[in-house]
Every structure is written in C-alpha cells, then in structure tokens.
Design goal:
Helix content: 40-55%
Strand content: 5-15%
Largest sheet: 5 strands, parallel
CATH topology: Rossmann fold
Distance between the termini: 26 Å
Strand order of the largest sheet: 2-3-1-4-5
Number of strands: 5
Shape: globular
Order of helices and strands: EHEHHHEHEHHEHH
Bound molecules: shikimate-3-phosphate
C-alpha cells in the first residue's frame, strides 16, 4: 500500500471519521504529509461541487440535499486514487457511504470527549448544526447517536488536546498493525 504504513496490502484510501471538532482535517493533513499521500477534505469538495459554502447549502437547499451531495462526492472520491480523506461528521452515518468506505478504504475514528469537542467547536461559529443556543445539548445528542456507529471504524484513536503529531503517530502505528493483519501476519498474536 504505502511504504510508510504497510506493504503489500491493496491500495486503499484512509478515511477519517468523527464528530465536529475531533480534528479530522488537522490530523488528516498531517497524516497525509507523513505517509506521502494526497489529502482531501470532503466538505471542501462538496462546497466546490455545489459552488456554495456548507452553511449556504444547508440554508438554501436543506440538510437532506447536503447529505445527498455528501454521499455523491465521497463515492466519487473513493472511486479515484487512494488518498487521505477527512469526512464531515455526518458522513459515516450514511449506510451507503459506510459500506463504500468499508470496501475501499481504512476508516479511522478520531474519538474525542465531550469537553474537548465543546471547547473546539466553540471557537468557530460556522457549523450549521451548531448554530443553536444550546450547543452542549446538540453535542451530547450527536455523541449518543453517532458514537455507536463510529465504533464500526477499523481503527479508533483518542483525539486529545496534546500535539497533533502524537495523534498522528498513534494513527500510523494502528494502520501498521491493521495492514500487517491484512497481509496475514499474525500481528495481534505476536503482541500477546
Ligand atoms: C456535519 C459536520 C460538518 C459538515 C456539516 C455537517 C455533521 O463537518 O459536514 O456541517 O453532521 O456532523 P465537520 O465534522 O468537518 O465539522
């Protein structure tokens, strides 16, 4: 796949999933640089395809139209050359998208605790789902709804407030273990 993380396993994209504020773009960009793959941000691609910002898509066309566009754009990206892809927080909730990611990519859930997420999403006010009086309530609900699904990701890495490079190191280590498994090497057994 990629000399930095594995060897002969198929050429798969690496897809970052997780809630808003979990660090998918920041970690994804650094991960891509470290392992020598291209980085793509799904939200930016959706904006490009629509010629509108995410906020305007929600406002003018509604959330359902955004979700349809998101599904189409991610399917197109996954059909192309392997890359590191940061997805919007709702993307992995879509069954079709989840199945495509499962078939063509390795998924990485950046799991973050409520307090960390709240602090990070409070810094900016550009997310349509969080343009509400009670961000805490929305975040808690999204954690409840989405974490059981995010758990289906191939790899789960805790996203903390420390240096990004530490999180990237953890993702790379987990990818190495996963690709060693995929190649048939008994990586888990060796670790016992
Ligand atoms: C969303 C997350 C956003 C963006 C849209 C909807 C979600 O992306 O796709 O506002 O449903 O969680 P980020 O997770 O990159 O903020």
């Amino acid at each position: 796949m990629n000399a930095a993380i594995g060897n002969s396993s198929p050429d798969r994209s690496i897809v970052l999933v997780g809630l808003m504020g979990s660090g998918k773009s920041a970690i994804g960009r650094r991960l891509a640089a470290r392992i020598g793959m291209d980085f793509v941000d799904a939200d930016a691609e959706i904006e490009k395809a629509a010629g509108l910002s995410i906020g305007d898509i929600f406002e003018v066309h509604g959330e359902q139209a955004f979700r349809d566009g998101e599904r189409r754009v991610i399917a197109r990206l996954l059909a192309g050359p392997a890359h590191v892809l940061a997805t919007g927080g709702g993307a992995f909730m879509d069954e079709e998208t989840r199945a495509k990611i499962g078939a063509r990519a390795f998924s990485v859930w950046l799991r973050a605790d409520f307090d960390v997420l709240l602090r990070r999403v409070s810094r900016r006010d550009n997310r349509p789902l969080l343009k509400v009086d009670n961000k805490e309530e929305v975040l808690r609900r999204l954690i409840e709804e989405r974490y059981p699904i995010y758990e289906e990701a191939d790899i789960i890495v805790q996203s903390r407030d420390g240096p990004h490079e530490e999180t990237v190191n953890e993702v790379i280590a987990a990818l190495k273990r996963l690709t060693a498994d995929a190649d048939g090497a008994p990586a888990r057994d060796q670790a016992k």
